[in-house]
Specification:
Strand order of the largest sheet: 1-3-6-8-7
Distance between the termini: 24 Å
Helix content: under 10%
Radius of gyration: 18 Å
Shape: globular
Largest sheet: 5 strands, mixed, barrel
Structural class: mainly beta
Number of strands: 10
Order of helices and strands: EEEEEEHEEEE
Length: 151
């Protein structure tokens, strides 16, 4: 879509991805990526770490399930998506602004690792109770709305 800011971030997963479902049954996974720039200091002949960027990411539907099954804390990943800005008021009434990434693509970095890719064919809908044929009980953190992230 025109006017959106699409970025690519390379970094490490801060924690394991967390899979949840919206009230309408769409899968969404949340995870954080830390990206730290490194520069070489010629005077000291050492690598120096810059200030880390921590970015909360959300990926939807089948990709959300694939991410939670494939990625774990500490893995180096390449994430591409739309940068979003959101403002809110904290408990003390202070206005805060956060930046989040609505992920389109995510994969492991093969710089220092190898991977074997397995194509999936699963669905990204909430599990159903076999006995009743209806969606499993909604989690207490779910918010109303057809496809709003439950985070």
């Amino acid at each position: 879509m025109a006017g959106e800011t699409v970025i690519t971030v390379v970094g490490n997963l801060v924690d394991d991805p967390e899979l949840r479902f919206t009230p309408s049954g769409a899968a969404v996974a949340k995870f954080r990526v830390a990206s730290t720039p490194r520069t070489f200091d010629r005077q000291t002949n050492e690598w120096k770490d810059g200030e880390s960027l921590f970015l909360t990411c959300a990926v939807w539907r089948r990709a959300a399930e694939n991410v939670t099954e494939s990625l774990t804390q500490g893995m180096r990943v390449i994430v591409q998506g739309r940068l979003k800005q959101r403002s809110y008021e904290d408990r003390e009434g202070v206005k805060r602004t956060v930046y989040e990434l609505d992920v389109e693509e995510v994969g492991v970095s093969l710089r220092n690792a190898s991977a074997k890719v397995t194509k999936t064919g699963g669905s990204a809908q909430r599990p159903t109770s076999a006995a009743q044929g209806r969606p499993a009980a909604a989690n207490s953190w779910s918010r109303p709305g057809p496809d709003e992230p439950p985070f």
